[in-house]
Design brief:
The chain is α/β, with parallel strands linked by helices and 360 residues long. Helices cover 38% and strands 14% of the residues.
């Protein structure tokens, strides 16, 4: 029987193991020098002035909102097509996530719908780099500045993605990344806030350390335990050394799928924008659940697109989310594990072709 192809699986090697082992041997596993080195490595890679490591991207988003003074009574614009964590981070600080439809070409916030959703309570716009693709950041930033709004970028799955020569997460006031198990590099769990604003950096640092700096027992503001760990940072440092090659490979993987599927009736893929590093290769079909079951029977794991946030029981909302609904109900993510070969991609694509043929 053919090898089972996982939709996503983390990739580690001896370099990763040795970095973590050395950290354990040092007996210094709390947040310390390795965390600082990891923060610096990420900041330098994305072109930000500074970075702050936290336990997850959800915490990174929430801490960013807290640093901006967002709380009860405030509204934050969130795209309807995203993982629910984006909205959850807004709820965590007591603010209201206002869901907005997407542009089906970028899969990001629709600037027109964004402007129509603004109210006197709107304080922040939270664009998502969905699957590593850039939303229309020029239009979003122009609208935000015109209305005096802060911008917090959810770039959870966009490490390695750029638009107009600028890295994801560096357009707004703060940007947030994820190092969850499924991401292009992983520390198992973890997140990072990047910013060019030293005052915002200090606020995030205080928030993650019980309201203090440098572990001095002086607490001028309320903070929390959002610490990282040198164990995670050790793994992150090793993974960062692989990141440039993985960005090239991720784009190549997407191109392999696109070339094989471009002429298949009923199957579409979006063009790969210059600079984008897609999280997963995604295709659009009329019956993604049926395709998923077909592929699973053949030892190929996939993942369906996120349902619109407004359809979740905890966030049910009225409104016009036509493009989100249309994209969500047709999207499916194909295998993207780092060990995939061209032969594996051929196997996946051939199974998709057979599925389409048997449906005729």
């Amino acid at each position: 029987m053919s090898t089972y192809l996982y939709q996503m699986e983390p990739a580690f090697d001896d370099d990763d193991v040795e970095e973590v082992a050395e950290c354990v041997r040092s007996s210094w596993v709390i947040e310390a020098q390795r965390t600082a080195a990891f923060e610096q490595a990420v900041a330098e890679y994305v072109g930000a002035a500074c970075a702050v490591a936290v336990p997850s991207c959800t915490i990174a988003l929430a801490a960013s909102l807290m640093a901006l003074g967002i709380g009860p009574g405030d509204e934050v614009i969130v795209p309807d097509l995203t993982f629910v964590a984006t909205a959850n981070a807004v709820s965590l600080v007591g603010a209201k996530p206002v869901l907005v439809d997407i542009d089906p070409q970028t899969l990001g916030l629709d600037p027109i719908a964004l402007e129509q959703s603004l109210t006197r309570r709107t304080r922040v716009v939270m664009p998502v780099w969905f699957n590593g693709r850039a939303p229309d950041m020029a239009a979003i930033m122009a609208l935000a500045r015109a209305h005096g709004l802060a911008v917090v970028e959810d770039a959870a799955c966009a490490l390695g993605s750029r638009c107009c020569g600028q890295h994801a997460g560096t357009f707004g006031d703060l940007g947030c990344f994820s190092f969850n198990t499924t991401k292009i590099i992983t520390t198992g769990t973890g997140g990072m806030v990047v910013t060019d604003d030293p005052e915002l950096r200090e606020r995030v640092e205080r928030l993650k350390n019980h309201g203090r700096l440098d572990r001095q027992d002086y607490h001028p503001v309320i903070g929390y335990n959002f610490h990282f760990s040198d164990l995670l940072a050790a793994l992150g440092l090793a993974q960062m050394r692989k990141l440039p090659a993985r960005v090239v490979w991720k784009r190549e993987l997407y191109s392999w799928y696109a070339r094989r599927l471009e002429a298949v009736p009923g199957v579409t893929m979006l063009p790969l924008p210059e600079g984008a590093c897609p999280w997963y290769p995604d295709v659009f079909v009329d019956e993604p659940a049926g395709l998923r079951a077909w592929l699973e029977e053949r030892g190929i794991q996939t993942r369906l697109y996120f349902p619109p946030v407004h359809t979740q029981p905890c966030y049910q909302a009225e409104g016009d989310f036509a493009d989100t609904a249309a994209v969500s109900r047709r999207g499916i993510w194909l295998p993207a594990a780092a060990y995939l070969t061209q032969a594996d991609v051929v196997r996946v694509c051939q199974a998709i072709i057979e599925w389409q043929e048997q449906r005729r």
